[in-house]
Amino acid sequence: MITNMENIKNLIDNKGVKPTYHRIKILEYLQDNMNHPTVDKIYEDIVKSIPTISKTTVYNTLKIFTEKEIILELTITGNETHFEMNDDGNPHHHFYCTDCKTIYDLESECDYNCNTKTDIEGNKVQSYQCYYRGICKECLSKNNPEIIN
Amino acid sequence: MRKNTKNLLLQNGIKPTFQRIVIYEFLDQNRIHPNVDKIYAMIHEEIPTISKTTIYNTLNLFLEKNIVLGLTLSGTEMNYDINITPHHHFYCTNCGVVHDVFISCPLGNDKLKITDGHLIQEVHGYFKGICKNCIN
Fold first, then answer.
1. At what angle do helices A39-49 and A55-67 cross, to 10 degrees?
2. For the domain with range B85-135, which CATH number is right: 3.30.1490, 3.30.1330, 3.10.20, 3.40.50?
3. Is residue A123 located within the same domain as residue A137?
4. Domain covering B2-71 in this structure, CATH number
5. pLDDT digits (tens, 9 = 90+) for A121-131
6. Rounded Cα distance, B19 and B54, in Å
7. Touching check for A111 and chain B: CB below 8 Å?
8. Residue B92: what pLDDT?
9. Is A20 found in the same domain as A43?
10. Using the beta-carbon criterion (under 8 Å), do A148 and B114 form an inter-chain contact?
């Protein structure tokens, strides 16, 4: 039986990154926490189980994972970067509520397929992110229920 | 020019102070998606008494009133765009320049749309890669 830890190890190894214990733990954390954590949140939670880990290690690891496209960085809020697992098979857009500051995964995809474009006006595209900003359904139903109906 | 800007600010409920007019006109004449530092550095030459706090506060007010757009594509800082008609952006990871790209986005043209129950007010499409100037 292959454990989850071995799965993660293989995933990192296949991308050409040395699967150190810290790197495995960080990726495992991101796999278990799909709520788009920031560096601070990741560090705060992981340091509880690994007291010797430094924030620099977390930063560097996230940077390598992003470069190797194992994870995605979301710059949706404008002041902090949030991270999530790169789910190649299920690309999705994100919605940021400017009221409660929550980031949602959107189920509805726009049908323009921007994520498949490799060339735009002569520029070579390497990655694509689409962000929606507005008021989420929770905040709407609390403050402006008339908009939904 | 100054008069038009003054009216535009007034129409959006913003008191048209001299510094706000200068900042708005700077953004209008320099469509380079500048960050706060760049805006400060360039306006400071013209108005040595202006503070960075004034620039920050003015930009936040402009964002709030939806007369400029805040781009969050770099992840570390906000870039400001005076062109509030929906369009996508391309960020060159080599030279750091933000280019406007004009691809028609059906969602971007459809403001105030409800998706998955959320009210969408802004659509931001960010492409990253190498721009045509750096390829050549």
1. 120
2. 3.30.1490
3. yes
4. 1.10.10.10
5. 999 998 888 88
6. 8
7. yes
8. 93
9. yes
10. yes
User: Which residue on chain B is closest to A133 by alpha carbon?
Assistant: B122
Give mean pLDDT, residues A39-63.
96
Question: What is the CATH classification number for the domain harbouring A3?
Answer: 1.10.10.10
Distance CA A52, CA A140 (A): 43
Q: Is B127 in contact with A120 (Cβ distance < 8 A)?
A: yes
Token digits of residue B14:
């913003």
- Which chain A residue is nearest to residue B76, measuring alpha carbons? A79
Spatial contact of A128 and B128, defined as CB atoms under 8 Å apart? yes
Please state the domain extents for chain B: 2-71, 85-135
Alpha carbons A49 and B46: distance in angstroms, whole number: 54
- Amino acid B76: pLDDT: 74
ipTM (interface predicted TM)? 0.77
Shared domain for A60 and A125, answered yes or no, is no
Domain end point (choices A87, A106, A136): A87
pTM: 0.82
Name the CA dihedral angle for B83, B87, B93, B96, rounded to a multiple of 10 degrees: -10
Domain assignment of residue A135, given as a range: 91-149
A107:B117 CB<8 A? no
* CA gap A113, A70 in Å, rounded: 21
Phi-psi map region of A137: left, alpha, beta (phi>0 left; psi -120 to 50 alpha): alpha
Does residue B1 sit at the A interface (CB-CB below 8 Å)?
A: no
